[in-house]
Amino acid sequence: MGRALILFAHGARAASWAAPFERLRDLTAARLPDVPVSLAFLELMEPRLPAEVARLAAQRIDEITVVPVFLGQGGHLLRDLPLLVDQLRLDHPGVTIKVAGAVGEDPAVLAAMTDYCVGSL
């Protein structure tokens, strides 16, 4: 039994689009050496969230935190993600699934992005 972290991104047709998310996953995993950190997508890329949750559940992970790597709470996070998570909870009743807020709505993330924007002048 254990816990895991899934970074959840939208997905895109261009494979190169995933590169920053893969770097974020790797940087996060380096800070959490005892916790599996993975990346899953809503659409267009693999693995999709249901497949990643199933893979972790098969490894006896019983606590999963999903971190939406989105800038804000658009339709995907307001409608699609809650439906997905509801179904995942039904499919994996022994797994507790927590969903964090959108990364872009965190004050520290916004401050770092502001610093970057101001520094770009």
Short structural summary:
With 121 residues, the chain is α/β, with parallel strands linked by helices.
Helix content: 40-55%
Low-confidence stretches: none
Major β-sheet profile: 4 strands, parallel
CATH topology: Rossmann fold
Could you spell the SSE succession in H and E letters?
Answer: EHEHEHEH
Question: What class do helices, strands and sheet pairing give?
Answer: alpha/beta
Mean pLDDT: 93
In DSSP terms (H or I, runs of 4 or more residues), the helix count works out at: 4
Number of domains: 1
Please give the alpha-carbon distance between the first and last residues. 49 Å
Number of strands: 4
Radius of gyration: 15 Å
Give, in spatial order, the strands making up the sheet with the most strands.
2-1-3-4
Shape: globular
Q: Could you tell me the strand content as a percent range?
A: 15-25%
Q: Look at the structure and give the CATH class.
A: Alpha Beta
